[in-house]
Design goal:
Shape: globular
Strand order of the largest sheet: 2-1-3-4-6-5-7-8
Structural class: alpha/beta
Number of strands: 8
CATH superfamily: Thiamin diphosphate (ThDP)-binding fold, Pyr/PP domains
Largest sheet: 8 strands, mixed
Distance between the termini: 14 Å
Amino acid sequence: MTAMFSIKDLVEEEYTLPGNASCPGCAAALSLRIALKVLGPKTILVVPASCISVIQGYYPKTPCRVPVLNVAFASTAAAGSGMVAALDLKGKSDVKVLCWAGDGGTADIGLQALSGAAERNENMIYVCYDNEAYMNTGTQRSGSTPRAAATTTTVTGKPERKKSVPEIMVAHRMPYVATACAAFPLDFAGKLRRAASMPLRGLKYIHLLSPCPPGWRFPAEKTIEVGRLAVMTGFWILYEWVDGRYNLTGPSKGLLDKSKRRPLRDYLSIQGRFGHLTEKDIESLEEEVEEQWKDFARKMSMT
């Protein structure tokens, strides 16, 4: 399992400078700051069209103190693969390639490139910061938008379930797959450290829940509270898959027992995107959460 990560393990050096174009309360910007503190200056950041392509700055300036490669929406993993090949040719084994893409560029538009990179087992780290919609272009639904959430293209609530990209990655039998949440930065940092330090070459994938104040419609100062509620209600499960085994991590370790979880309505009621739900809708989502926990318990028992 992932070793405990302490706040003292984070270096004081900053690799994202103050002042960027992120929205107030942006979990993606906060998480990128943590990620670069863990991975250090010998990191090449690959970003597609997304909120992060705006946050990392308009030419010719950037808040990032590492090299940044901006690429087309669908090509994050493909471009990362090319960067890995170039580094291998130059014999630079101490430089990490970090692909940092949103859910639109991962679950939908970029899934083919990611699957190809996973099948080839490219030696890089891929983080999907999942704010559960196409936020940079106006909050349109994505394959990663949860069922019943309102977006500008699903104004009465999305009818389909959220696509499980981590499970798609597990099916590729790659070295490491994990979920994380921006509201639990030390859990995320520990998983990044493990991914970066694994002796086994190959693609390491982390799916990071990234609450979005304007897209999810909650006050900017509530970002961490919303992320914590996502985990503590069981709506978002923190886990890792390594060596063919599933392990719960962080607060999720104690939530297999339904009685230990916060009521799901605590998470739903704080967000405007779920403000239209009826009691029947909430009960249906509660059943869905319990179903995913039962499925997870079954997978743990099988490995």
